[in-house]
UniProtKB/TrEMBL annotation:
Residues 27-303 form the ABC transmembrane type-1 domain. It is found in: Cell membrane. Residues 341-555 form the ABC transporter domain. Gene3D superfamilies: ABC transporter type 1, transmembrane domain (1.20.1560.10), P-loop containing nucleotide triphosphate hydrolases (3.40.50.300). This is ABC transporter ATP-binding protein. Pfam families: ABC_membrane (PF00664), ABC_tran (PF00005). It comes from Acutalibacter muris. The chain crosses the membrane at residues 26-50, 62-80, 152-180, 263-285, 291-311.
Length: 555
């Protein structure tokens, strides 16, 4: 078997493994199935009874009894149908939420680098498509295809009971259908693969436009964006059409095949009636049984088509689930809070061609306040990325109280830091919700944080004070207000190490001086790492480091 084939089988097995928690449900579904198959088996026999012994023999009492039996069978069949639908909707919903939760948890644990190449629209669109495609294996259609085996078996028994000659005609369709499915499923898998890739590309492009909506307006990019939109959409629609046509051809040929069988049956059946070998009722019952075989055989073989539709999404989803997550190295704990931090001979490059740190060494003693300065692009934020374990150094060591930080439990380690970045992310909601992120801080502490950061003064002037909705990523706040809010957030967290990464670049002169005073004089016992381009902010720092040519020097 080819490697591709083996891979596909692995993916199908892995997809099917999502069904394993529902053994009880499947046993119940199996019982319903047996009942439905029994009913299905009896119906043509009852119709044969109505036709031959009721209508043809003009026996009213047989007719009445048989019609009543048929009505009961139909009713029972519908009740079973309803029970099956309920069962499968439940199984489908549980599988869907299981896969989506698994994906969401994975997403939150992924490395920062994963998010650098993708935007939100693209991530959401891909995950939604893939999760719903993979969860569709629990659709009634797929699972019930198994029932077709029963139906086919009961159908064949019924056929053989009436005429083996006609049975051969019915079964002759199977190899033809196998050939058709083999041809179409390969094409369909390729078409779906192209389609999900185009959709991914489209979502990425679409999301990028929304992120850059101000630039589109300011630079008058409507026309060019409009043109690209039409091109991309045309491409997607073309692929959708191609895919729909593959489906349509499959259905058309399948229907032609089934009708050919039925027409042949009428012809040969008619001849057998004329020769007196079969009754009219028997031929009608035979035609009904033949539908038990032809339809389900098609449905069963179409499973290959069905998996061809799921495969590209399943492949992408499993690749996503296999992405590297952040390393949570261990259970180590720091001895002191704040711990002594030390970079020793650290080298690091985002890519091999451009080393950023080349043997950087520096330390932050517990309770010390240090500043790091350096030109744009010299690697200051990179140092923080390494310290916060968003990236790992290529060589050298970063330790907290002498323990390599990679050996500390990640959540506990990050809990040591309050970080205020230059462009903090603000969640949808009001000011309070954005400062009290965990929702667990008391009102008094919240008030102090808002006042100390200077945010309280600004919030007072807003329409609903601290309950004012700030919009998407703080769109209704000024740059300085956003940063103040982020400072309040960090103060409320009250972590032993506070990091300011050009955190006050948007502050006016008075606010900056005020916050600097808070940092220098009112953060006793806390370690502070400040990255700044403002020389005024270096006053009162215990030590100032300059980052140059990938190395750190004290100045
Ligand atoms: N995720 C990344 N992938 C690849 N290269 C990166 C990445 N982040 C930063 N860089 C590159 O690394 C270098 C250092 O970036 P860094 O953000 O650490 O500089 P910085 O000193 O903080 O600059 P600034 O003062 O402008 O904020 C830059 O040349 C930048 O292009």
């Amino acid at each position: 078997m080819s490697r591709m084939g083996t891979n596909n089988h692995n993916i199908i097995w892995r997809t099917l493994s999502y069904l394993s928690p529902y053994k009880k449900e499947f046993v119940f579904a199996g019982l319903l199935l047996v009942a439905a198959t029994g009913i299905g088996f009896l119906q043509p026999l009852v119709i044969q009874e109505i036709t031959d012994k009721g209508m043809m023999a003009q026996d009213i009492s047989v007719l009445r009894r048989a019609v009543l039996a048929l009505a009961i069978l139909v009713l029972l069949g519908q009740v079973i149908e309803m029970a099956q639908t309920r069962l499968f909707v439940n199984v489908h919903n549980r599988t869907y939420s299981h896969i989506f939760l698994q994906t969401f948890r994975k997403l939150l644990g992924l490395k920062k680098s994963y998010f650098e190449d993708r935007n939100n629209a693209e991530i959401l669109s891909c995950l939604q498509t893939d999760v719903s495609q993979v969860a569709s294996i629990t659709d009634r259609y797929t699972v019930m295809s198994i029932s077709h085996v029963f139906r086919i078996a009961s159908g064949i028994v019924g056929l053989l009971l009436i005429s083996w000659k006609l049975t051969v005609i019915v079964l002759a369709m199977v190899p033809v259908k196998i050939l058709l499915v083999r041809r179409f499923s390969k094409r369909q898998e390729k078409a779906i693969d192209n389609m999900i890739e185009s959709n991914r590309d489209f979502s990425q492009w679409f999301g990028d436009n929304l992120e850059g909506i101000d630039e589109i307006k300011l630079w008058g990019l409507f026309e060019s964006r409009d043109r690209v939109f039409r091109e991309k959409l045309d491409g997607i629609l073309r692929l959708q059409k191609g895919n729909a046509m593959i489906d349509a051809w499959n259905i058309l040929l399948e229907s032609l095949l089934e009708w050919s069988v039925t027409i042949l049956l009428y012809l040969v059946g008619g001849l057998l009636i004329c020769s007196g070998s079969l009754t009219i009722g028997a031929v009608f019952a035979f035609v009904s049984y033949s539908w038990y075989v032809t339809g389900p055989v098609s449905a069963l073989l179409n499973l290959k088509m069905y998996f061809a539709r799921i495969l590209p999404s399943a492949r992408r989803l499993f690749k996503f689930l296999g992405q590297e997550t952040e390393q949570d190295g261990g259970k180590g704990k720091v001895k002191t809070q704040p711990p002594r931090l030390e970079f020793k001979d650290v080298t690091f490059a985002y890519n091999e061609k451009q080393p950023i740190l080349k043997g950087a060494s520096f330390r932050v003693e517990p309770g010390e306040k240090i500043a790091i300065i350096g030109r744009n692009g010299s690697g200051k934020s990179t140092i923080l990325n390494l310290l916060l374990r968003f990236y790992a150094p290529d060589s050298g060591s970063i330790t907290a109280d002498g323990v390599p930080i990679s050996q500390l439990a990640l959540n506990e380690y990050r809990a040591l830091f309050s970080v205020v970045s230059q462009e903090p992310y603000l969640f949808l909601g009001d000011i309070t919700e954005n400062v009290n992120l965990t929702g667990r801080a008391s009102q008094e502490r919240l008030k102090v944080a808002l006042e100390t950061s200077g945010m309280a003064n600004y919030a007072e002037r807003m329409p609903e004070g601290v309950k004012t909705q700030i919009g998407r990523n703080g769109a209704r706040l000024s740059g300085g207000e956003k940063q103040k809010l982020a400072v309040a957030r960090a103060l409320l967290k009250d972590a032993p190490i506070v990091i300011f990464d050009e955190a006050t670049s948007g502050f006016d002169v008075e606010s900056d001086a005020y916050l600097h005073d808070v940092v220098v004089n009112r953060m006793a016992g806390k370690s502070v790492i400040m990255i700044t381009h403002r020389y005024k902010n270096l006053e009162g720092m215990d030590r100032v480091y300059r980052l140059e040519n990938g190395q750190v020097a004290i100045i």
